Amino acid sequence: MIDAVRKAEAHFPPPPPGVDMRLPGANRFTPEAVQPYNNEKDQGGWAEYARFEYYHGSGNPDWPEAVMEAELTAVQGEVEKLYADTDSVEEIIASNRSPPSVVLAKGLTQVTMGAPHTIYNGGLCRATVRYFDAQRRRPGLPPGVAALVDQLAHDCVGLQLVNTSAEDSAELIVQAGAFGEHAFTTLASSGGAEAALPGAPKHFAVTLPPSSRLDCVAGLRRFANDPSYAFPWHSRGIPVPFQ
């Protein structure tokens, strides 16, 4: 279905100049087009075409770098608007306009969590994976750790995890789904043998030594669990350590 929609969209003309945040010279419907800006009403779907092409494997291998660079440029633009904004609170209320926002996370959500961006009016994040800082017991990646979902399929997810710190190890927990709604069935490092995970857990734990990288592929059984806001340490079980 997605392939059929993409092929049909390719015949549509691009949007008017000045509306989108695509890369210079990129067309909305080409694989290299990116759209990081956090405005789902007008621009939200335009980011998905390039993302589909990357995971489809038919092109656009540089999408993660391109979308993150474009998002950083967009953030820098919003910071400049923020410092240049001289309107008073009364003027902002009277004009009914939103002030500049530097919280742009569409590309970051797509790249690190394998997820479409959350819709603006209260939609839930439909992530393939979610991360927790095991040492600090808080949601999100530990400081200095980068993540990339480099493979997406109905029954598996590929991850690249990098500890950029040259001094400190990092401990993180990977969760299947934004709310633990999925389950991990197997786990394998790049080039390693695939190991079955007893009980199909919703978490596994990773320890990254300083200046290290881990590439792995985890088997998935989607929507195997009731969704929950509970964090990994709220459950009775201990996340399976990555071997």
Account of the 3D structure:
- The structure is a single chain.
- With 243 residues, the protein is of the alpha+beta class.
- The chain has two domains: 1-126, no CATH class; 127-241, Golgi alpha-mannosidase II (Immunoglobulin-like).
- 25% of the residues lie in helices and 24% in strands.
- The chain is built from six helices and ten strands.
- It has helices at 2-9, 40-43, 46-56, 63-84, 89-95, 106-113; strands spanning 129-133, 138-139, 145-153, 156-163, 170-176, 183-189, 195-196, 203-208, 212-221, 240-241.
- It has a five-stranded mixed beta sheet, with no helix packed on it. A five-stranded antiparallel beta sheet has the order 3-4-9-6-7.
- Strand 1 (129-133) and strand 2 form a beta hairpin.
- Helix 4 packs antiparallel against helix 6 (106-113).
Bin the helical content.
10-25%
Strand content: 15-25%
How far apart are the termini? 37 Å
Helix- and strand-based class?
Answer: alpha+beta
Count the helices. How many? 6
Residue stretches low in confidence (pLDDT < 50, at least 5 long) are: 19-29, 36-44
Reading the helices and strands in chain order gives HHHHHHEEEEEEEEEE
Number of domains: 2
Radius of gyration: 20 Å
Please give the largest β-sheet.
5 strands, mixed
DSSP, total strands: 10
Rough outline: globular
Mean pLDDT: 81
Question: What strand line-up does the widest sheet have?
Answer: 2-1-5-8-10
Quick rundown:
The chain has 243 residues and is of the alpha+beta class. It is built from six helices and ten strands.
